Amino acid sequence: MSDAPSRWSGSTIALHWLSALVVLTLLALGWLMVHAIDDAARRFDLYQLHKSLGFVALALLLARIAARLATRPPIALAMPRWEQRAATLAHWTLYLLTLIATLSGWLLTSAATIPIPTRFFNLFVIPNIAAANPALAEQMTEVHLIATWLLMGLAALHIAAALKHHFINRDAALRRILPQWPTPR
Amino acid sequence: MHSSIQSRAPVFCAAALALAVSTVSWPESASARSNWSIDPARTHIGFSIDAVGWPRTVGKFERFEGRIAVDFDHPAQSRVSFHVQAQSVDVGSPGFSDYVRSSVLLDAARFPTIDFASTAVEKLDDHRVRITGELTLLGVTRPLSVDVDVSKRADGGHTRLAFTAKARIDRLEFGMNSGFPVISRDVDLTISSEAQEL
Fold it and tell me: What CATH number has the domain spanning B8-197?
């Protein structure tokens, strides 16, 4: 306990911010491609980008979980035990929701009745993991949407908590997940 | 099976020919047929298709050739043929176009051309011709009849025939079933072209 690091590991920090960027981009793309784009070709391209980035998010997630399990978490901050537990629960729930969102996305495109191959950044085709199945595609679309909304809600809470710790509690919760370069410590 | 693929563009051309022949009362080059070729720079072969929950897809073909033989004495014997390169489809982005030319839709690798050949040309009035022919798509040949607006214009010393036509085809008739009913069975074709005498 005494030799626990004061910061998250470098790999955890890098994966955290990369994942944040990819997931926020996915959420924005998901909304845009469904609600805001009236041009069929642009929309097709955004779907392909969304699908490609979804697989990036999935890979990052698996790497994050591995990094989280393989490296020591930083020393506990001074906060009530319930808060500590809530934070940990929120982190793992974010992982779980990201996993559900990406897998349901993969399943829904696989089961879709219109077979549009997922070309990963136009490099290669990602295989389907289900046969065409309209009912499954519809269910997975629901799951995808619900997971997405829950993810957005929990991410908002996560960000609010980080800001609250930084500006109100004035503890290291946010600092210790920030990249280290400018601030020695 | 797909020897007589045609697209609507030929139709126009034919129509134009027929018009020229019958309405414009051409300088009686009389006796025989004159041969015309479409001007690719002034030809547009477009299509649009709707889908549920998806914006209308509008596309065009970039490569094609068409020939028109006009018999001014016997308009009904005029002929039009068109050959469109399926690979040349453009629906607005490379990725989307790849999907449209893939095996689930145009299957351009197996069926490189979409063909139209006229079987009959009939004058409707001074500016319209009905061209009946056969359209071959995905190796399946089906009859297609198109009304074509025709006009004549002078370009320098040359006369050019301009044609426009709209047609609707049922893609299911050609075995292009992918995505139905989410993707509409109706495909609207819009063709405009100009022909110049060879």
Answer: 2.40.128.110
